[in-house]
């Protein structure tokens, strides 16, 4: 898939650079900030009193879709007011808190952060406000295809037992199966001159990625001055998980199998993670050949 993407991008760029006498091709760059949409229950925020009784439990609804998208655009005008746009997006997600737990002598938190490279092919319909107007409102409809990336989950526990402090840090990296989402947006373009334009856009991304594999990359326990690398003591079954749609007697899972192979990854049921977001973006583009249609 990466080879196919490289060929598509190279072809678009070659066409853009060789058609300087036409207004059909353009290249652009945009960036902005994406806000998580509150769709899923991702965890809880709990508080306990000094007797260990739960005094408050609040559901946390969010996605892991918040962060900063940076997108390269390669486009071609199909018709006068219709164009095809291929976006290549680097998405740097923010560190999102999923769960927290507070006790008298202990705190617990789980956070997640994603990094993805996405393909965003879309169709853009625009309507100039007049023959001499430099403003052009537009609407965009397309799909989102993550082609690379990972989501990192960090679980941190800190506390005291008498006069002794202790902590635990667990880091897991997850990778997803091939998934497809959608993206839609509305915006306005302003032509600074015949070739250069700027854009402002509000867009929504609907994206869920199915889990494929998870690997523990850190498991460290600290008690007082003593640090233990727990990860080094774990077998493959305890460190790696490969997800399936169904667990059977043939799956490497102690719940369904008579025997398990600890030298292989554990099998578990696959779930999906929500990366949906609402983004505000600004950008600039260069149209080859000027404003002639």
Brief rundown of the structure:
This protein has 2 helices and 17 strands. With 293 residues, the chain is mainly beta. It has one domain (2-287): Beta Barrel (Porin), CATH 2.40.160.
Report on the architecture of this protein.
With 293 residues, the chain is mainly β. It has a single domain, classed as Porin. Helix content is 7%, strand content 64%. An eight-stranded antiparallel beta barrel has the order 1-4-5-7-8-10-11-17. The longest helix has 17 residues. The radius of gyration is 24 Å and the shape is elongated. About 6% of the residues have low confidence.
Keywords:
293 residues; mainly beta; Porin; 8-stranded antiparallel beta barrel; 64% strand
> What percent of residues adopt helix (DSSP H or I)?
under 10%
The largest β sheet comes out as: 8 strands, antiparallel, barrel
Q: Provide the number of structural domains.
A: 1
Tell how many strands the DSSP assignment holds. 17
Q: Can you tell me the CATH class?
A: Mainly Beta
Number of DSSP helical runs: 2
CATH topology title: Porin
Strand residues, percent: over 45%
Give me the side-by-side strand order of the main sheet.
1-4-5-7-8-10-11-17
Query: Helices and strands, in N-to-C order?
Result: HEEEEEEEEEEEEEHEEEE
Which spans have pLDDT < 50 for at least 5 consecutive residues? 7-23
Compute the average pLDDT.
90
CA-atom Rg in angstroms: 24 Å
CATH architecture heading: Beta Barrel
* Span between termini: 34 Å
Using the alpha-carbon principal axes, give the shape. Answer: elongated
Which class do the helix and strand fractions yield?
A: mainly beta
């Amino acid at each position: 898939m990466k080879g196919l993407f490289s060929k598509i991008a190279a072809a678009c760029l070659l066409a853009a650079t060789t058609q300087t006498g036409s207004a059909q091709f353009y290249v652009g760059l945009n960036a902005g900030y994406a806000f998580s949409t509150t769709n899923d229950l991702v965890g809880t925020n709990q508080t306990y009193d000094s007797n260990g009784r739960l005094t408050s439990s609040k559901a946390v609804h969010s996605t892991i879709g918040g962060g900063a998208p940076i997108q390269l655009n390669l486009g071609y005008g199909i018709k006068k007011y219709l164009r095809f746009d291929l976006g290549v997006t680097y998405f740097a997600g923010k560190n999102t808190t999923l769960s927290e737990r507070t006790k008298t002598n202990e705190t617990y938190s789980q956070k997640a952060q994603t990094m993805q490279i996405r393909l965003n092919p879309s169709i853009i319909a625009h309507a100039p406000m007049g023959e001499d107007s430099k403003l052009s409102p537009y609407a965009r409809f397309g799909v989102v295809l993550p082609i690379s990336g990972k989501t990192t989950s960090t679980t941190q526990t800190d506390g005291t037992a008498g006069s002794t402090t202790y902590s635990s840090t667990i880091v897991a990296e997850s990778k997803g199966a091939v998934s497809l989402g959608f993206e839609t947006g509305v915006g306005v373009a302003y032509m600074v001159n015949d070739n250069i334009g700027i854009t402002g856009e509000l867009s929504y991304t609907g994206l869920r990625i199915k889990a494929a594999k998870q690997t523990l990359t850190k498991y460290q326990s600290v008690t007082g001055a003593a640090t233990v690398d727990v990860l080094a003591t774990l077998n493959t079954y305890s460190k790696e998980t490969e997800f399936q749609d169904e667990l059977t007697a043939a799956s490497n899972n102690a719940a369904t199998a008579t025997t398990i192979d600890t030298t292989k990854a554990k099998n578990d049921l696959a779930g999906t993670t929500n990366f949906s977001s609402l983004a505000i973006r600004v950008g600039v583009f260069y149209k080859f050949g000027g404003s002639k249609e």
